[in-house]
Amino acid sequence: MSDPRNVLVTGGNRGIGLAIAKSFVEGGDNVVVTSRSGEAPDGLTAVAGDVTSTESVDAAFTKAEEIFGGPVQVLVANAGITKDGLLMRMSDDDFADVIDTNLAGAFRCVRRASTGMIRARGGRIILISSVVGLYGGPGQANYAASKAGLVGLARSVTRELGGRGITANVVAPGFIETDMTAALPEDTQKTYKAGIPAGRFARADEVAAVVRFLASDDAAYVTGAVIPVDGGLGMGH
């Protein structure tokens, strides 16, 4: 059993982020989640953080470091939004807002986390992308572009900081069992599942397990990688 690590999960108050945060807690790590409201479900420690603001990101990390009594050792950049729409009708704001949150927001968090990791000569950065970032999706030009951008970010960070014991990897989930997918009409769910070789949606804890692996000592030589957790949906992409 390795020593507990200081883990920060952005957008860790619901969905995949919540499953990831709970998984680290169950593994004995010290976990802080960020949410825009600064609130989180029972059993989790939260700080307020808006990834579209450098000042807010800095304040969230500073508060988390006070709670931990040390630097963030594992960053899971999960916060994200969607503003889907057909290309010809997508406004500049809808494109820019998604890029600002999903891609630039991850950049702001990685930049802030890297200072402590460089001093410690070690750290784990895990960016939560999507199969859509590699596979594309109609009506999701903004979302797909933002999620694809995370791959370039992780690989650039790997080349820049890899010699300092810092890894940066991307997890690309497919369809996940969430309130959102549960609300889809049954016929729509069947259509989606028909295109997934595994024939089902993923459980959020299956994504969390891959994140936990990438944060572990066992993954010290895995960096700049894109790990799909999509039941085979995006094979070859």
From TrEMBL:
SUPFAM superfamilies in the record: NAD(P)-binding Rossmann-fold domains (SSF51735)
Keywords carried by this UniProt record: Oxidoreductase
GO molecular function terms attached to this record: oxidoreductase activity
InterPro entries found in the cross-reference section: KR_dom, NAD(P)-bd_dom_sf, SDR, SDR_fam
Ranges of residues in domain Ketoreductase: 5-179
Keyword Oxidoreductase: yes
One Pfam family matching this protein: adh_short_C2
Family in the record: Belongs to the short-chain dehydrogenases/reductases (SDR) family.
Protein name per UniProt: 3-oxoacyl-[acyl-carrier protein] reductase
Source species: Knoellia remsis
